[in-house]
Design goal:
alpha+beta, 4 helices, 4-stranded antiparallel beta sheet, Sufe protein. Chain: A
């Protein structure tokens, strides 16, 4: 009988702790970037902004948006990336900037990808190539890196 108040107090304290739990705010931040705003198309902005196809994979979807100026890629935004779980968010927060830099350097979808982010890399390549095809970017190739 003496343990009952202790058990009840511990149960109340444990329940209160569970109910007051707040996940890490960084885990709630979106992995994808916002789309390129239409207002960016000024005299110094891109000539065109093209959306790539939505490429599904086993972890989610990948979709990019490409800004072109004078036939050159000037910006790429990953507007959809797999973010259904903490591991996917962690992988894609690290992979997205690397994929963007590779594509900007290559000026095409012929990028190496990122180790550990194979599905995201493949989806990024496919969506980017679709956007470049839609933009009519003749300098963009479908050749895969060796």
């Amino acid at each position: 009988m003496r343990r009952a108040p202790i058990v009840i107090a511990a149960t109340i304290a444990g329940t209160a702790a569970v109910l007051s739990f707040q996940p890490n705010p960084a885990d709630r931040l979106p992995v994808a970037e916002p789309p390129i705003p239409a207002t960016a198309r000024a005299s110094s902005g891109p000539d065109s902004v093209v959306l790539g196809t939505d490429v599904p994979n086993r972890y989610g979807h990948v979709q990019v948006q490409v800004a072109m100026r004078a036939g050159k890629i000037v910006d790429i935004r990953a507007i959809r990336l797999p973010d259904g779980d903490g591991k996917s968010r962690e992988i894609n927060r690290a992979a997205a900037p690397q994929l963007k830099q590779q594509a900007l350097r290559a000026q095409s979808a012929a990028i190496d990808g990122v180790s550990g982010a194979t599905y995201t890399s493949d989806g990024y390549r496919q969506s980017l190539q679709a956007a470049l095809d839609r933009a009519g970017a003749s300098q963009a190739t479908t050749a895969q890196p060796a």
